[in-house]
Amino acid sequence: MPLDRSTIRRIARLARIRLEESEAERLRRELDGILAWVEMLNSVDVSEVAPMTGAITIGLRMRPDIVTDGGDADLVLGNAPERVGDFYAVPKVVE
Amino acid sequence: MNLTDLGLGPARRALGRREFSARELTLAHLAAIEALNPRLNAFLLVTAGEALAAAEAADAALARGEAGPLAGIPLAIKDIFCTKGVRTTAASRILEPFVPPYESTVTANLRRDGAIFLGKTNLDEFAMGSSTTNSAYGSTENPWKRRQDPAARLVPGGSSGGSAAAVAARLAIGATGTDTGGSIRQPASFCGITGIKPTYGRCSRYGVIAFASSLDHPGPMARSVEDCAILLCSMAGHDPLDSTSVEVPVPDYAAACNQSIRGLRIGVPREYRVDGMPAEIEEMWRSGLAWLEDAGATVHDVSLPHTKYGLPTYYIVAPAEASSNLARYDGVRYGLRVPGEDLIDLYEETRGAGFGAEVKRRILIGTYVLSAGYYDAYYLKAQKIRALILKDFTDAFAQVDALLAPTAPSAAFAEGEKTEDPVTMYLNDVFTVPADLAGVPAISVPAGLDADGLPLGLQVIGRPFGEETMIAVAAQLERAASFTALPALRAGSPTI
User: Which of A70, A82, B14, B316 could covalently link to B382 via disulfide, CB atoms 3.0 to 4.6 Å apart?
Assistant: First the structure.
């Protein structure tokens, strides 16, 4: 089923990416091509296969639940485009 | 003798004997960068001041006899490794103002051992690409030229194209790269150098800007197998800051270069013989097998039946993970911000302006395959096929000790070629993607030239944590191939 323009708009909205009109049409065509290409995976029988969860099989390691880092607000906020005191600043969210 | 011609091993020995200083070695490389980088655009940032300060420290350590294994060795760092206090962009507009307050584990390990960082190298934005043309800061030029058409501007491969070009043109002795779908091995092949993608979990991903977390592999790039092996010794090791880092001791990889390969069983994956492969690549592959037989190995036909599903599987898994990893670029905490009417508008404007075309394409594909109703049909299915691809390797390694195949289906192509549709570009990674999906180690070694005089690489794929055997085989290929061709553009070359 070919992708339509509204699907591209919906995905872009989900991904929080603003698209120009010309960009949307080009991406629609490209994504359509890529999705048609990956269709070939449908010919593989995976009914008996467990999905791979990672490239290596190691158990999760545990560590003591103690604070080892933190308290560096200036370092953390050093790259913020806008800050107010020790907080990130954004446009007003709640009226 | 030109100091920039020295490999890591010889430079290290000469520094130890105080034949020249780390400062002299660093200055020689900085001069080469100054001469050639305006043309090649291999480095996005040159940190001359920091490099010279580190060189002085290395000279002092050498004088005291307390030098680390990489003391005074000038390296280039792919601009996807966070370096404390030094701008790190992933070649993206969205990270243009980003100065990390922390250091990646891999670069910290290299610094610990005395390495000197010359600067940060160009890449495809967020490591998404095979040509280094997807950089927000301009493409990198491959220092190699076609004999018949020296004016053509060839790509260095990608995504670690800046690192590969820098090492090939002798602007650095070695470099770091990352390999998610072939991003160390394919540019190594295109630029006539060596690159290792280690086993998943061998090198920490902490501080490496994430593309696809289950596929990202940091690794070394240099002009010989031994040089890569020495770098890998420093880069590798367990790191509590990366939950997928593996607690396995780091062997002496450099010693593996001299291991005999007598009696080793080498597999030839029959599915890697694809239609339309250039005759020179077929020929180089045959030569490689003959060289290994001459050294006492035996050659065996093996099958990796799910090879053809590798690329489409990759182009579901990698974009899915990328769409999730790149959600953090929101214009609020770091990086670019484009103002908006409200918060959602700010996100959309920032991400619309900050990401390039390929990154948007992959985020949208990833968002689509993870969206409600499609997860099972795409992502879950792809992870199941990935399990089959891993099983192919496991079955093959029950019969053979290592696999030999070409690294890429072609030599370096020119800028503007293969851009008509994204899938054509993706096909470049047909031989490299399976090892990333399975997490097994692989190395690319320059083994021949095509009719245009461009380098071609052979790839050795090893068992998980079987880097030593893989390196022994690669070192034998290197000795037999005696690849001595040089790129047209390099430090001290008469053409500049």
Answer: B316
